[in-house]
Amino acid sequence: MAWARCAPDRAADARIRRHTYYNRAMDPDRPNFFAGPYIDRRAEEREDAGWAQAALEDPQTLYLLGSGTHQLVYTRPEPRIAFLDGEQGETLASVEPSRLILLGWFRERRCVLVDVGDEPPLELPRNASFEELRPLSPLLAGEEAGLLAYARALSIWRARQRYCGACGAPTVPERAGHCMRCSREGCAQEFFPRLDPAIIVLVTDGERALLGRQAMWPPGRYSTIAGFVEPGESLEDAVAREVMEETGVPVIGTRYDSSQPWPFPASIMIGFSARAPAGSPARGHGELEDARWFSREEIQAGAIVLPPAHSISHRLIGAWMDGK
Known about the structure:
Elements: H1 10-26, H2 51-57, E1 62-67, E2 70-74, E3 80-81, H3 89-92, E4 100-106, E5 109-115, E6 128-132, H4 133-136, H5 142-160, E7 171-174, E8 179-182, E9 190-191, E10 196-204, E11 208-213, E12 225-228, H6 235-247, E13 253-262, E14 267-275, E15 290-295, H7 296-300, H8 312-321
Parallel strand pairs: 1-5, 10-14
Antiparallel strand pairs: 1-2, 2-3, 2-6, 4-5, 7-8, 8-9, 10-11, 10-12, 11-15, 13-14
Helix pairs in contact: 1-8
């Protein structure tokens, strides 16, 4: 699976090899990028039918504007969210309520995602533009990247759930935008945001790490093995199957590490470490054009381009580099 397609930066990778591994070793409980307590979701507030009016009347409300999978940000001097505040509440009152989604409380202020479609209903802040999250995410502050990832995932789900999967009738948003209900009386099926669980695993034989690469990746980049969980399959079963399918290497044990939201488009990456019998041969198969074993010394010396530092795959490699 292709989790990252950023241009390779060997100088950055060298800095990461010197610093990031050790920082994470000292702080193993540090949340992955896009994760962490960046927002108070207050799910109970979604049950209040008057939540939108309360938000519009609150001068402290923050508005995050989205257009499809693009969100309003400033890109200079450093990327950050271009929030609108309560001063725009009167203008935003003209937006259809169905386009407002309560995200929660961000920095102790109510935060609302506004789906503006292709034509924003108000004048946008100077120097702000609608941008995709993926290329900007490594440059954003962690809490803002997490908020944008949350908003992006909701936007994608809502766009894909415009019709009932049972009868085909249009759906309507409820519960502050976190539920889509079938509009046909007699059906009224409710649909909630869905995630695609995927495992991502660093397999080692003690002294070497098993990494693979896809043909579409930048030259020299190798990463951990990943794949979607199939119906009727445990996470551990998915690890063993994906590693065998893509590399031919048997797995003899797995250990959970951490997880990472990955809204490209709607995944939750569930990270593991695993062991393989010493001397197991590896070969690229399926989505991988190559799979091979690398020693710590080879990785430290820059023999490969590592996955981006904000990815869970980088965290897994880093922990192993530090002997964790």
